[in-house]
């Protein structure tokens, strides 16, 4: 089993480059199912979610090549094979296979998705959307069966603002007959990225990035070439690391507008965030002030940055409250950083953190992707050598994290340890 070993206390300095966005990648790849010829996506991150989706597309007959961040997908010979288990469970975004396969084949059998355990993550709004378009959807033994004679456009009001449901309904609706309107749609940049790919494939989509999306169904979609947007959550993670442990760090390949909520919070804490066209520079911060933070749907403060941000708050002067309004149980990092001497506790949907605290190294477990990023940051700050276990969660979403952090001066390495050698403090 692989673990990360981090010797804390090294200051970070230099330039770190952000990869393509995980949450776009995992939707763009399934979207290719809807085309009748080759789709090329450039700038994809080297993460396990992308490799898993490649395998899933190959399972249904896709011819896929992935090299140097470029994926070419020939979907012409795909068939609607049932995908009830296995790889489907390895990631959350396998739910996009439902919308894309329903759109193309009008029937699909897909297992319930996996992904990070953050509290309940229902997909009722996805299913409500598919049903409104005319599909019959049943859950049989943990797999979702979707069948439609034909898909017809409909007006769908989402009860909950959901990234996944918004994209999934777009995927199912682009080849449906007539007009689909998604109201109370999510507005994340990744939704615009997916709509851009679909539009370049010949789809007719208006309003992506606003809360009303209108789709006029078309007869067929063709192949295209697309470059993915940068990962705003990876960028935000590096910004937080730079604020906590940096002596001048440039984050390259970021759209500053996409991380504005984080930038505003960092500035409130006393961090100087210097925005350029596609770069952000964060000089050394002398003193961090406590702040309160509430996660919200985009353009609010992203829930995906809440966990790394909680570690930054352990370095701030005073008491901070961080509330996650999106996921009720996304605080598994708090127990782990408490074992590293952090002063933190959970109250309902909030974590209360006081600082500044000198963190101490420990052996800790990454329960999920962003908890993992939080623990890496804690390790960078802690006195001694921290071991982070269960790093497969981290590698679902961070491309070449070790190499990137080494490039700005971190003492971090990936080590293979035998199962017997695994210990908890
Ligand atoms: C692959 C991907 O893009 N993952 C992101 C996506 O997850 P995901 O698409 O799963 O998240 P959603 O936007 O759907 O979830 C938002 C909220 O709505 C609830 N909900 C969602 C769907 C539904 O049918 N019913 C329902 O009640 C969820 O439990 C959650 O409380 O957005 C989340 C919120 O920004 C991010 O944390 C994830 O990184
Ligand atoms: C929660 C996340 O991912 P997923 O939805 O893929 O589990 C995340 O990226 O922080």
TrEMBL record:
Keyword Ligase: no
Reactions catalysed, as given in the entry: phosphoenolpyruvate + UDP-N-acetyl-alpha-D-glucosamine = UDP-N-acetyl-3-O-(1-carboxyvinyl)-alpha-D-glucosamine + phosphate
Pathway(s) per entry: Cell wall biogenesis; peptidoglycan biosynthesis
EC number(s) on file: 2.5.1.7
GO molecular function: UDP-N-acetylglucosamine 1-carboxyvinyltransferase activity
Active site: 116 (proton donor)
Keywords: Cell cycle, Cell division, Cell shape, Cell wall biogenesis/degradation, Cytoplasm, Peptidoglycan synthesis, Pyruvate, Transferase
Locations listed in the record: Cytoplasm
Major localisation: cytoplasm
Record-annotated Enolpyruvate transferase domain positions: 7-405
Chain residues that bind UDP-N-acetyl-alpha-D-glucosamine: 92, 121-125, 304, 326
2-(S-cysteinyl)pyruvic acid O-phosphothioketal found at: 116
Residues the record lists as binding phosphoenolpyruvate: 22-23
Functional description taken from the UniProt entry: Cell wall formation. Adds enolpyruvyl to UDP-N-acetylglucosamine.
HAMAP family: MurA (MF_00111)
Family of this protein: Belongs to the EPSP synthase family. MurA subfamily.
Designated name of the protein: UDP-N-acetylglucosamine 1-carboxyvinyltransferase
Organism of provenance: Sporosarcina siberiensis
Lineage of origin: Bacteria, Bacillati, Bacillota, Bacilli, Bacillales
